[in-house]
Write a structure and sequence with these properties.
Layout: E1 6-14, E2 20-26, E3 36-42, E4 49-57, E5 61-71, H1 97-115, E6 122-123, E7 138-148, E8 158-167, E9 175-177, H2 186-201, E10 216-223, E11 230-236, H3 241-254, E12 260-265, E13 277-282, E14 287-291, E15 294-298, H4 308-322, E16 329-333, H5 339-344, E17 350-355, H6 358-371, E18 376-380, H7 388-391, E19 399-402, H8 411-420, E20 424-429, H9 432-444, E21 448-455, E22 465-471
Parallel strand pairs: 3-5, 6-21, 11-12, 16-17, 16-19, 17-18, 19-20
Antiparallel strand pairs: 1-2, 1-4, 2-3, 4-5, 7-8, 7-10, 8-9, 10-11, 12-13, 14-15, 20-22, 21-22
Helix pairs in contact: 1-9
């Protein structure tokens, strides 16, 4: 077998990040020996028989891409979106949702048992999302002069013009120019299409990363799910007050549901939708959303759980795991805008949130005031270095709640938590692989993994949240 070969293979297992696994039986030249099994990873589902092209060839496995589905799995469904298969937003919209959650459950179990080597712990049934469409409260669209086209002479080509939409996987220049998306509301798509036509009619330039010039960079729509607030955040390379005022007048007349409009100005060369500073052109510059009984202020660049409704279920699960009695001291690491700290505050004596990003601390303190919370404090600390000096004047924690980014915790931070010796650790993670890595260190440091439960925050994607309880 060589790179570029076309093979036929039946997929019988599902691996992390949506890779199907099939085996090729190769006859062993030794007499009376069992045939060897050669593993092939391919972007297909268990039950599929596919024709696939070898893209990468290693000694013990190969990676391939599907050329044709010969016999489809019985779990396949018709995707709702016409852009599915090209757009990078949804990866599994052609798979029955119940099967999606079953596979995610299997992935998390396999990571903890196979990669982590854990055996004596309880694995609870995955918590599915209540909404599988229109569940996102934030969508980030990009402007580009290069469009991604598909199915033209079996090749993908680019076309120059004015486009706004979503990136295709592994390409940061070409944009899939979309008219609709089923992840956020229909209103969000109408705002996208109106904005496209508004700027095309005025021949407004698009920022080019190579020559470092142009105006438009990103359009971000944030829509609260528990209130009626809606934010438009237009990211541009430079200021243009007269154009922004014209845009604000036009779009608010068309969509009176919009409550605030912000212009973030970014001089960065990198394609990051965060400005160096912002100008508020309409409304307060914030929107407000609720998780449970608590209201949270959301600024243009602050982090907030993207699936608001499922976030409440996630936090309730974390509360169930921590099983508070009312007299505990809690440390909340990677506290962001303070959502978890505030959510658990009524069940604890005191809560201390630790966060690296200054703007998040600012948002968190505003949320304390908004909810009239008096037993929570926030500390700005570098969680990539030791945060222990900040704890010298604080009471020691009974419980530590962790919710780090996808890369997981820094080893120093893991060791800091071990030195604090809390009775319980509740670890919320958006990446079970890094969660297992950190959990192994906690277990080596004297903790026991009691139970885990996956939570599906992002239907039709590979992403999976997982909550783990460790006790001293």
């Amino acid at each position: 077998m060589n790179k570029g070969d076309i093979i036929q293979i039946k997929v019988d297992k599902y691996a992390f990040e949506g890779k199907g696994i099939g085996k090729i039986e190769a006859d062993n030249p030794l007499d009376n020996a069992e045939p060897d099994s050669f593993i092939v990873f391919v972007n297909a589902y268990p039950g599929d028989t596919v024709s696939a092209k070898i893209k990468k060839l290693k000694k013990s496995y190969a990676e391939a891409s599907v050329e044709e589905i010969i016999t489809p799995s019985s779990k396949r469904v018709q995707p709702r979106c016409k852009y599915f298969g090209t757009c990078g937003g949804c990866k599994q919209q052609d798979l029955d949702y119940h099967q999606q959650t079953d596979y995610k459950q299997e992935q998390v179990e396999d990571i903890f048992k196979h990669d982590g080597g854990f055996s004596r712990f309880n694995i609870e049934k995955i918590l599915p999302s209540e909404n599988i469409f229109y569940y996102r409260n934030k969508m980030e669209f990009s402007f580009s002069e290069l469009q991604w086209l598909t199915a033209i002479d079996d090749k993908t080509v680019s076309n120059k013009g004015f486009f706004v939409g979503l990136h295709v996987p592994n390409n940061f220049e070409k944009i899939l120019d979309i008219e609709e998306c089923f992840l956020q509301s229909e209103l969000s798509a109408h705002i996208l299409n109106f904005s496209r036509e508004f700027f095309i009619k005025r021949n407004i330039s698009i920022y080019n990363t190579k020559i470092h010039s142009g105006y438009l960079r990103n359009l971000i729509v944030r829509q609260a799910q528990k209130t009626n607030d809606l934010m438009i955040n237009l990211v541009t390379f430079e200021e243009n007050e007269s154009l922004m005022k014209e845009y604000v007048t036009a779009i608010t007349n068309k969509f009176p549901e919009i409550t605030t409009i912000i212009n973030n100005i970014s001089k960065k060369k990198a394609s990051i939708a965060v400005g160096d500073y912002e100008i508020v052109y309409h409304g307060s510059g914030f929107i407000y959303d609720k998780i449970g009984n608590y209201k949270f202020r959301i600024s243009a660049n602050s982090f907030f759980q993207t699936n608001t409704i499922q976030a409440e279920n996630l936090y309730n699960l974390a509360l169930e795991y921590v099983d508070l009695k009312g007299d505990e001291i809690i440390y909340d690491l990677y506290s962001g805008a303070g959502t978890i700290s505030i959510y658990v505050s009524e069940f604890a004596k005191e809560v201390y949130g630790f966060e690296t990003v200054e703007s998040s601390i600012y948002d968190a303190k505003a949320n304390l005031e908004l909810n009239k919370i008096e037993n929570v404090s926030f500390v700005q600390a570098d969680l990539y270095k030791t945060f222990l000096p900040f704890t010298n004047v604080l009471p020691k924690p009974d419980v530590v709640i962790l919710d780090p980014p996808r890369g997981g915790m820094h080893r120093i931070t893991v060791k800091d938590v071990l030195l604090l010796q809390p009775k319980k650790i509740v670890y919320v993670s958006c990446n079970p692989s890094t969660q297992v890595r950190d959990t192994k260190i906690f277990v080596e440091g004297g903790y026991k993994l009691v139970k885990i439960r996956p939570v599906d925050m992002f239907p039709h994607t590979y992403h999976i949240e997982n909550v783990a309880l460790l006790v001293k």
